[in-house]
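Weekend entry, working from home. Most of the wet-lab plans are on hold until the incubator is repaired, so I used the time to fold the two sequences that have been sitting in the queue since the last round of cloning. Logging both here for the record. First:
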Amino acid sequence: MEIVIVVLLAAAIALLVYSFTKKDKVQEIEKDLDQLQLSAMQEIYKLKKKVKVLEEEILQNDIQSLSHEEQLDSYIEKKVLAKYQHGMTVDGIARSENITEKQVQAIIKRNERVLT
């Protein structure tokens, strides 16, 4: 009986020493997972920064194109008013400016104060 207890005690000590010296695979996997998570977060951060820069560029381009369109609209509106003041018909103005008669009438109506 004493021999069995001594053998079991020796086996327990041997297993305890083995468990401390053996590499823990779970810890290695956890470290790998943490590294992967960290690198993924860094990539996401970089992508978000790039998207933000692209959005700002697109917004600036939109603003520039809107101001260009507004300038064109203002130019057309001035031409319509000038032609109307010179006695051209609404139909003639619409054909010469490639816009509809309703658009010509709307421009004239918006600018009635200027015309009087």
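Second, folded right after the first finished:
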Amino acid sequence: MKTTLRKWAEEDANQLAAALNNKKILDNLRDGLPFPYTVEDAKEYIKAMQDSQADNTFAYAITDEGRVIGSIGVFRKDNIHFRTAELGYYIAEPDWGQGHGTRAVKQICELVFETTDIIRIFAEPFARNLGSCRILEKAGFQLEGLLRKNAIKNGQTEDMKLYALVRE
């Protein structure tokens, strides 16, 4: 088992669609992703990531021995937060609980801190998403607070947690 990150390629669309066409995953992500998630949706996402500004968007396929098993990205903020970035990720359900998420988060944070001027990376998982919270903690993120009633997801008011990793 080897977790690696690599840039998205158009030929990843089928595997991306298969992984993301899962309500359990979508229920833990922000709104805006269609369900069902099609190969065409995947192609549009891959194209958008390929065309994004290199210093602001760091988006990668998470792979295990060449097989796409998830997605991870760090997205630079703007204005007074221009040296801060938000982290987002997911792992395909068949690959949950195998350490891929923790390894991918560590890899992308190292990459961003080593190659950019970003000094802070944060993530805001739903408080109920214990797996994602654990990934962040194992990757060295610090819990900074509970964001009470911070979002509406699937018609439900949700608490979120704020985690951050700061370049030392």
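Plan for Monday: verify the second prediction. The chain has a mean pLDDT of 94.
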